[in-house]
Amino acid sequence: MEKDAARKRLRQLREKIDEQNYHYYVMDKPLISDADFDALVCELAEIEREFPDLISPDSPTQRVGGQPREGFATVVHRLPMLSLENALNIGELRNFVSRAMKLVPEAQLEFVVELKVDGLAVSLQYEAGLFVRGATRGDGEVGEDITHNLRTVKSIPLRLRKPVTLEARGEVYLPRSSFLALNEERSLQNQPLFANPRNAAAGSLRQLDPQVASSRNLEVVVYGLGYSPELQPHSHSAALNSLKDLGLRVSSQTVVLRQLEEVVSYCESWRVKRAALPYEIDGLVIKINDLSLQKRLGNTAKSPRWAIAYKFPAVQAQTKVLGITVQVGRIGTLTPIAELEPVLLAGTVVKRASLHNEDILREKDVRSGDYVIVRKAGEIIPEVVAVVKSRRTGAEVPFIMPEFCPVCGAQAGRLPGEVALRCLNPFCPAQVAERIVHFASRSAMDIKHLGPALTEQLLSAGLIADIADIYALAGKKAELLALERKAEKSVEDLLSAIEKSKEQPLWRLLYGLGIRFVGERTARLLSAHFGSMDKLISASPAELEAVEEVGAKISASISEFFALDSSKELVARLRSAGLKMAEEKENSTEKPLYGKTFVLTGTLAACSREEATALILAAGGRVSSSVSKNTHYLVAGEKPGSKLQKAEKLRVSILEEQALIALLAKGK
User: Fold this and answer.
1) Under a CB-based contact definition with an 8 Å cutoff, are residues 225 and 243 in contact?
2) Which residue positions in the chain have pLDDT lower than 70?
3) Could you give the CA distance from residue 147 to residue 123 in angstroms, rounded to a whole number?
4) What local confidence, expressed as pLDDT, does residue 213 receive?
């Protein structure tokens, strides 16, 4: 075949294959048989093998490409991918509609109702009709670049039907049949099973090797237009129709309704019908259709005011308690766990459920051998609702909490005023493991790659015994490489993350130490007040309680922790490893908010309260949780609550969010 003829035939084949994909995935009406479709793809591949220089990035043969990647780059979304507020019952759904009607009383509202597919939210970016980038939702502002895996999803077109530039939002999911087949295969290979289709989809898209994602039969449904300089629809339903016309797959179950009762009826109907779907849904999404009204209604800090997710009530199931075990937590808490006969619950196989503490265990009277009703709290955490006492035979065995720790054998006991039973040995292996995981967590020292599984490996191999040993791993590279599934790259990544953690500020180290009652906020306040680890360690109870929000309980816990010889030794070893033991010296007096105390209340629109707090602290200000005569400014967002009344009574200056932004801008 001559090259010109090959070029012409390739163009014809690609157009035919794209057209068949459109009718198969988007229209759900295949025009030819699978065998005829495969023949087209085979002919295309044969010509491309003969003329490799004619291969284009949008060719159907290029869905799975190249070598595994080394990591994920980040992608900034052109418009934030906000999360949705949840309506957990019909009453909350009605309240959502009422709030919207009050904000735009003159408008005749129209609603788009969509199935809430249970998968992973993604952004799909096209330039001049070509698929160029795909990303996870991430934190809403920045996601991970997973283009290499999204290219393997056959229902995502590599070229749109028109040369349009746009960013579409969708959900990648794993159909039930594919999920069951995948878990069956993993079971035969002695691999851990995925808990549910959502986790399987997320895990597939976060593989560095696109061949893995390609093998898992992922699907996509597009639910919105994020951005496009060319498409300017007036309504959400029109945007969906435009996306469908361009070749993107949208849900065939989406409806436009005008009456609230129609919306309620449609949502209720899917509580039963969802079982017949080939994929999992965990509710429905209700959006105001008119895009101009969406713009007027705007967003809160985290979610739009023009959309809500109606979540189905928690699914319950009945199963048998095979036994009751005890789990030991980071600070020694002994938690009874019901080991269950596996039961499918909201798309997840549930085998365990927390019984929380001894008092709840006794109150519910859960026994080994009992039949119990279990549900998922918020569709996530399995919990035992009640015992089915009518099914008792008399053979059930009551459970008695142990007097000794099941891991280390040390005495267990309750501290004054506490419900939880605890292992009183701070060197208990279970506590050590949990403390190391906490220390390395994202909120503390943020040591990537050091999670529960690797922590157990390192402890079992004797490479670490506490958190300070983490910083000696740099000299044990050979031992790390000898661990199972540890290659040169993964070891280098771990050691790099450990070294990088030495630059974390003092407050992160304080939080990472795991002192009881010292959370992130308290750690920040302590760090800002004392400025160094040495001053904190030597502080008296009165000096500690002079710190805002630190009372007698927290003060006593801090004093007890640093009074231990083991704690003093631990801090000394961390100091020797090069961790920061003091706040960075800055000329705070030159900062725009130096000496000013702020209180935040209500919902902010431009950023979260945590983000606003960080900005104020960076500008030299202080943030308090309560209004007093020492408060300089109250920053009031939406629904400010009682703090506003108190501020007005004390004649504290009240700022709207934009005024705060203006104050912060002075320091830029």
Assistant:
1) yes
2) 24-26, 28, 34-35, 38, 62-71, 187-193, 195, 301, 314, 346-347, 376-381, 417, 585-590, 605-608, 610, 666-668
3) 10
4) 83
Global confidence as pTM = 0.51
Per-residue pLDDT tens digits for 633-663: 999 887 777 788 888 889 899 988 878 877 8
Name 508's Cβ contacts closer than 8 Å, sequence gap at least 6: 443, 444, 445, 446, 523
Cα dihedral across residues 45, 51, 57, 62: positive or negative: positive
Helices (H), 218-367: 236-245, 260-273, 291-297, 358-364
Domains within the chain, CATH numbers bracketed: 3-62 (1.10.287.610), 86-311 (3.30.470.30), 316-401 (2.40.50.140), 429-501 (1.10.150.20), 506-576 (1.10.150.20), 588-665 (3.40.50.10190)
Q: Residues with catalytic annotation? A: 116
Question: What are the φ/ψ torsions at residue 267 (nearest 5 degrees)?
Answer: -60, -45
**Mind giving me the DSSP string for 573-642?**
HHHHTT---BPPP--GGGSTTTT-EEEEESB-SSS-HHHHHHHHHHTT-EEESS--TT--EEEE-BS-TH
Q: Under the phi-then-psi rule, with left for phi > 0, alpha for psi from -120 to 50, and beta for the rest, what region is 66?
A: left
- Whole-angstrom distance, CA of residue 411 vs CA of residue 459: 23
Round to whole Å and give the CA distance between 324 and 353. 10
Contacts of 187 (CB under 8 A, 6+ apart): 193
Check residue 87 and report its DSSP letter.
Answer: E
Is the sign of the CA dihedral 607, 609, 614, 620 positive or negative? Answer: positive
Q: Give the whole-angstrom CA distance, residue 12 versus residue 18.
A: 10
C-alpha atoms less than 13 angstroms from C-alpha of 246 in its C-beta half-sphere: 31
What's the rounded Cα separation, in Å, for the pair 632 and 654? 9
Which three-class secondary structure state does DSSP give residue 36?
helix
pLDDT digits (tens, 9 = 90+) for 533-549: 999 999 999 999 988 77
pLDDT at 35: 65
Residue 240 Cα distances to 110, 155, 251, angstroms = 15, 16, 9
| Radius of gyration, CA atoms only, the chain | 29
What pLDDT was estimated at residue 68?
A: 45
Both tokens of 76, joined, read 């900034």
Please name the residues in contact with 52: beta carbons below 8 A apart, sequence gap of 6 or more.
Answer: none
Question: Long-range contact list for 518-524, CB < 8 A, 24+ apart?
Answer: 518/554, 518/557, 518/558, 520/443, 521/549, 522/549, 522/550, 522/554, 524/617
Residue type, 501: S
Burial class of residue 342, CB neighbours in 10 A (0-12, 13-18, 19+): exposed
Assess contact for 245 and 22: CB atoms under 8 A: no
On whether the CB atoms of residues 641 and 601 are closer than 8 A, the answer is yes
For the record, the structure tokens of 422 come out as 């605890």
Residue 333: its H or E element: strand 333-345
CA 270 and chain centroid, separation: 26
- The span from the CA of 409 to the CA of 397, in Å, is 23
